Amino acid sequence: MAQTIKGGERAIAATHKLLAKQRRGDPSIPEIHAVAIREQLGLAVDRVMAEGSLYAPDLAALAVKQAQGDLVEAAYLLRAYRATLQRIGTSKPIDTTNMVFHRKLSTTFKNAPGGNILGATYDWTHRLLDFSLIGESELPEETSEDAFSETEGTSPITSQSFSGTAMTRFMEPTAEPMGMKVADITEHPLSFPTTRDARLQALARGDEGFAAGLAYSSLRGFGRMHPFLSDMRIGDVVISLEIPEIAETVAIGEIVVTQCELVAKRVGSGTEEDPPRFIKGYGLSFGRNERRAMAMCILDLSMRTREFGDEPKYPAQDEEFVLLHLDNLDSSGLVQHFKLPHYVDYQAESLSIAELRASVASLDEETEEEAI
């Protein structure tokens, strides 16, 4: 328990001024504007939107600037702002089969409909520092328009495209909508055992590093997981809202999302109800967040263990372990709260240790007397 104390208001006011000065840096260097962060540090902005659970590129860029690039702190700022917003309605489910593609990839099906669209990716770079970016003031070398073209059209998830064919005869069928009310972890805290929709919501705004680390653990031996990338797509999707007064559904905007589907082998129990087959993991995130979406898929697959009647054996399969330690606001807050005053706690622990040592010393004396 953290014990707070009263006082230090002048010191706190002074540290706010020092923080603002540190954030500004050398005044002889032009200040970074939030719009520049939004346009040139887009992946950082996308991560903050995902972990802040709010799609607002301008506000996420502002949070990155205010937090001096600390993305966990920036996500905290955005999440706090989100808590002040009024909820005016619920949009219709987005249709990711009808997307303006920035990037589309399948490494499982060679003849995926529409082929692969590499788009902008670091996958094929050499990971060498580009020193030409230091002090860059000119625009990059022009590239042909074809390289920048985005693909618009309808493209079902790749595994669904081959539904009923030999290529997917061992594939878990795509679940049909059940008409059930979707969980909302922002209004109702997680309770265990959870439902899959609640798990996916928690994964979508959880800490990317923690999720990737747990996913990695299940790949390298703590889970025996070896999935295949069935479908990954990044692009613009339309947000639609149903207006009951006019009985119409209208488009109110577009957002960029990353969606991923992985498939993994399940040996099963050998019964008709649980035959050997490929099962599916799903991930979806705001912005361009491929690593997050893939980690979501792997953890989704791992945490479906109980769904198939098996007992969790590894950390990534334990939904309570994963979901209760996934949120970086919770983890960062508890880890850093030790910077707050703990004078009373320390004094209490010191008294406890003194009593324990006195008890041990007394026991030793009694033992010596019995020996004599």
Q: Profile the largest sheet.
A: 5 strands, antiparallel
Number of helices: 13
Please give the oligomerization state of what you see: single chain
Strand arrangement within the widest β-sheet reads 2-1-3-4-5
Query: Helix/strand-derived class?
Result: alpha+beta
Number of domains: 3
Series of H and E elements? HHHHHEHEHHHEEEHHHH
- Rounded to an integer in angstroms, the radius of gyration calculated over CA atoms is 26 Å
Strand content: 15-25%
Distance between the termini: 46 Å
Describe this structure in words.
The chain is of the alpha+beta class and 372 residues long. The protein folds into three domains: 9-82, no CATH class; 98-118 and 145-174 and 182-332, no CATH class; 342-371. Helices cover 38% and strands 15% of the residues. The chain is built from 13 helices and five strands. The protein has a five-stranded antiparallel beta sheet. A hairpin with a 4-residue loop joins strand 3 (228-243) and strand 4. Helix 8 packs antiparallel against helix 10 (290-303). The longest helix is centred in the C-terminal third of the chain and has 29 residues, at 343-371. The chain is globular and about 85 Å long.
